[in-house]
Design brief:
325 residues, mainly alpha, three-stranded parallel beta sheet, two-stranded parallel ribbon, 13 helices, 5 strands, binds adenosine-5'-tetraphosphate
Length: 325
């Protein structure tokens, strides 16, 4: 199967990105044809510093590799190096009603957060994401829950295009992890953990041990003192239990049993210790890779060359079907 997924180079990657998306990619690359992309054109749809963008791209690439992405097994590149993404997005924009874009949850939330008049790029974000996916004829798209609606829209776009111009695109399907599809903010367990929610709300993959401990100990919990998974009544502890379960590979029941009779403080101390241990290899690998600029460039250039061939082939077919050549 063809698999596509991307990540925005818009700051420090956090454990939500890892548990919701990156962890799946590492598994999928063993059994499928995977294409993974640093989506810089998506990163500029919200306020950003142009002087920081290249560094953010390099940092994201390093984290991908540190997490286990293998450039021998998957195609790995930077989105803006392949012009076909923007080209296809423009063409797909001619078949998708504006109303479909206006009802996207991410657009509604982010445009509200930004307050000042949201830009057309933010509204058109899902068209570019559909182009990313359809350009490579992806059948599976591993993402977190927040991106599910965009993948469904990509399906809708593919369906509309195929109906109008003849079968061209594969129908992509969202691939959500059974657990960890939506890791919540440490400061507000009713909201998604996100880079834009502020540093205290997430654990970055490269946070120091001291920072991890401080953030976990300050994480918002719920009334009562029992360590029990109950999303409705105990969203804070349930979120921490989910994180604990995914990193320790123990079931929720096992963890509840382990902490029976103990309080939040004991549990948080153990969780902090677990995260410190599990994130240590990222940091070691990241340090190593940071010194290998040329190696990194070679991987991304090689990936772009392979992606270009696939992208050109789809664009040729799309242009022909739309009567452009
Ligand atoms: N909290 C989360 N839980 C599970 N999965 C998540 N993802 C993001 N947050 C969570 C998934 O990570 C992948 C890459 O996300 P992204 O960085 O490209 O975009 P994002 O969703 O916009 O990430 P953030 O952290 O929320 O950034 P901001 O604050 O800038 O919007 C995606 O597959 C996403 O689903």
């Amino acid at each position: 199967m063809k698999v596509f997924s991307g990540i925005r180079p818009s700051g420090q990657l956090h454990i939500g990105n890892y548990l919701g998306a990156m962890r799946q990619w590492i598994k999928l690359q063993e059994i499928h044809d995977c294409i993974f992309c640093i989506v810089d054109l998506h990163a500029i749809t919200t306020p950003y510093d142009p002087g920081e963008l290249q560094k953010n791209i390099t940092d994201a690439a390093i984290i991908y590799l540190a997490a286990g992405l293998d450039p021998e097994k998957s195609i790995f590149f930077v989105q803006s190096n392949i012009e076909e993404h923007s080209e296809l997005a423009w063409l797909l924009g001619t078949i998708i009603p504006v109303g479909d874009l206006l009802r996207m949850t991410q657009y509604k939330e982010k445009s509200q957060e930004l307050r000042k008049s949201p830009k057309a790029g933010l509204l058109n974000y899902p068209i570019l994401m559909a182009a990313d996916i359809l350009l490579y004829q992806a059948e599976l798209v591993p993402v977190g829950k927040d991106q599910q609606q965009h993948v469904e829209l990509a399906r809708e776009i593919a369906r509309k295009f195929n109906r109008k111009f003849g079968k061209t695109f594969e129908m992509p399907e969202v691939f959500l992890p059974k657990m960890g599809a939506k890791i919540m903010s440490l400061q507000n367990p009713r909201k998604k953990m996100a880079k834009s929610e502020g540093k205290e709300s997430y654990i970055a993959l490269l946070d120091s041990s001291k920072t991890i401990k401080e953030k976990i100990m300050k994480a918002v919990t719920d009334p009562g003192k029992e360590i029990k998974y109950d999303l409705q009544r105990k969203p804070g502890i349930s979120n921490l239990l989910t994180i604990y379960s995914l990193f320790s590979e123990k079931s929720l029941k096992e963890i509840e049993k382990e902490f029976k009779g103990k309080g939040y403080e004991d549990f948080k101390k153990s969780l902090a210790q677990l995260l410190i241990e599990k994130l240590e290899p990222f940091k070691t690998k990241q340090k190593e890779l940071s010194k290998k600029e040329e190696y990194l460039e070679k991987i991304l250039d090689g990936g772009a060359k392979k992606a270009k061939v696939l992208a050109q082939s789809t664009m040729k077919e799309v242009s022909q079907k739309m009567g452009l050549i």
